[in-house]
Amino acid sequence: MSRKFLRQNFFELPDNIPSAKRKGALDLLVRKWSPFAVTAYTTQWAGHRASVYAWDRDQANADVAAAGYNPKRCMVCPETFIREPISDGFRLATMADGFEGQVWRQGLLTTTRWWESIPSARDWSMYLRAAGLDLNQTAVDRPAPVDSPLLATPWAVTGTPVTAAWAFVQTERAAAIAAVVVAAPFLYLFGQAAALSSATAAAESTMAEMAETNQTVRVDRSTALDNLDTIESYLSLEPFPPQFEIIAAASNFLRDRNLTIAEWVYDNGNLELTIASPAPLDSTFYIETFEKDGHFSDVSGTSGVQQKTLRLSMRITPQVWPIQ
């Protein structure tokens, strides 16, 4: 699937969650984060850490059907997962419909951003800063785009939910059992009573096995929900929202006003930013505007030369994790 229609995020689960139950715990976190009403996703795992690409499942199925294919028999794979990966560092990767900034750590894709066209040097620098890189020790010059070759098979394809996979297996087995049951009377009429008895016994054994396996899936899901409290308690150790969320909230106020963010400094809940404009800026207006948003508090501002720059200082409001 084209990178344009995907959303990417990085999740780190607590170490004490067993590996067999991490998938269920990740399902819960992805559902809370995803902007889509019905989400499908695929994952690159590295221990208890997961890099996730998500997409609108209904829209993807509709596009596959419009192309003349059966969505149930097609696998959706993010474009990034069929392009050659790297181990460590960052790069600007050429995609089919744009460019993707990528930050890799020990072979794991931790942070990405998509642009329709090559980003400016300023946008690239802000992306690296938001990704947590130390710009004092990292060359911030925008690199030349890298056109990685397309691979024959994806290098990361772990994302189909357990329940969907089980539903497919269950449907196939149920069809086989139904075929045996329908055929049994005809076999009996032809004097194959022994074969009918064997088929019936096999069907009953298979149905019992299916019931037992299905019970295991339900128990695993229930356990994953029980582990959600533990996950939330670990996540709550970080009281402040991600910088991406803070930048998005600030950008909403500056959009369509012919403004630029000249400086952005964030440190443990304290934010200082400088905005610039070709026209004088009303400091009172922007202080009140930021105060009205729930992300910011204690906003103060200092005007620069000819009031065309405004330095704002504020506190980031800690996020409240919901109690399940």
- Radius of gyration from CA coordinates: 26 Å
Could you list the spans in which at least 5 consecutive residues all have pLDDT below 50?
160-172
Total beta strands: 10
Structural class: alpha+beta
Q: Cα distance, first to last residue?
A: 34 Å
Which strand order do you get reading across the main beta sheet?
A: 7-8-10-9
Shape: elongated
Largest sheet: 4 strands, antiparallel
Strand content: 15-25%
Q: Please work out how many helical segments DSSP would assign.
A: 7
Task: Write down the overall mean pLDDT.
Answer: 83
What is the string of SSEs from the N terminus onward?
EHEEHEEEHHHHEEHEE
Helix content: 25-40%
Polypeptide structure, described:
This protein is 39% helix and 23% strand. By secondary structure, the chain is of the alpha+beta class. The strands form three sheets. Strands 7-8-10-9 form a four-stranded antiparallel beta sheet, covered by helices on one side. A three-stranded antiparallel beta sheet has the order 1-3-2. A three-stranded antiparallel beta sheet has the order 4-5-6, covered by helices on one side. A hairpin with a 2-residue loop joins strand 7 and strand 8 (270-276). Mean pLDDT is 83; it is low at 160-172.
